[in-house]
Fold this sequence. Notes:
alpha/beta, Rossmann fold, Glutathione S-transferase Yfyf (Class Pi), Chain A, domain 2, six-stranded antiparallel sheet, six-stranded mixed sheet, binds adenosine-5'-triphosphate, binds magnesium ion
Amino acid sequence: MKVNKVKLISFRNYQKEEISFEKGINLIYGPNASGKTNLVESIALLSLGKSFRTNEYENLIRVDSSFSKVEIELEKNKIINLQMIISKNGKKVYCNEVPLEKLSELSGILIAITFIPEDVLIFKDSPNVRRRFIDICLANLYRRYIYYLSEYKSYLKQRNALLKEENISLDLLKIFEEKMIEDQYHIIIQRNELFKGLENKINLIFKKISLKEDSIKIKYQTDFLINSNYEEFKKDALIKYEENRENDLKRKNSSIGIHKDDFTVYLNDKDISLFGSQGQNRLVSLSLKLAYGELVKETINDDPVLILDDVLSELDETHQNNLMNVLLDYEQVFITSAKKEVNENISCLYQIENSVVTRRK
Ligand SMILES: Nc1ncnc2c1ncn2[C@@H]1O[C@H](COP(=O)(O)OP(=O)(O)OP(=O)(O)O)[C@@H](O)[C@H]1O
Ligand SMILES: [Mg+2]
């Protein structure tokens, strides 16, 4: 898939811009604070329904404006028009002019894989950052994932609310647990599949970029059984809920479940979050995103759009060239950089000056 056009009205530092993009590697350059990240943020916004850098959607509206509009022309097997209108009252999303009821309906339409400077910290960050990555991946890969996850979250909320009550009905608590076990069985299968797929792909990608023979392993951590049939899974999970119930009643919270899941990445059998250098964290986190890109390609039989914000400046020339070769396998890639990079693989150049985007190649 590819983004043909981005139209911005009162979005971030942009007043009114209309930019046409092409397939291949699109490089967006300009000095610091010129609006490079803002531009790619607008594309990611219509992929996820939310910004990769803020939950305060009002920050997206240009200072002194009352609303903001992002419009994207997406081309996959057909042309799709996506729009988001942001006002003080909230966000509204339209697909081919039809309003979407929930932001989750956006999932799977424009699949954009983003790598932003903060992603380098993914292995060192708190587990909820890694869980967000897992959920975004799976929302695009499996239609039913969001269904199981939101059902689980709703039971979890109800169980936690019940744990805070005065006279707790144990029967009701057990009903919630049984429902949660069922959802978690499906979620754990899908998360485990994701990690197996990522582990397989990340080794190939990392080799292509680093030209090293290092081995990368991804270990999934969850409270319940990973490779089992439903009967065994349920039996084990019921015992664990039983064992933890007293503690949960005391703490008025659910101490076990997939809301505590995490994963660890090992580079040559060493935990990268503890032993990896900054450069290794950068290359492995980037490879992880690209490994996810490979899984998307295989699953949907189409290329996701890649957005790499400010990655080049941190890589030496060899790594930059190796990365470019990997990127050539994608229909469309957006790269931002403070410098005008010279590389024969770049198809289009866009310069940002005073909040105006001008095509230079
Ligand atoms: N809602 C807004 N209204 C107006 N300007 C905004 C708004 N939000 C952000 N900006 C401006 O956008 C600029 C930052 O843009 P952005 O983060 O895209 O820069 P950048 O080109 O990626 O810079 P860097 O190279 O430092 O990463 C800042 O000058 C900031 O003041
Ligand atoms: Mg930036």
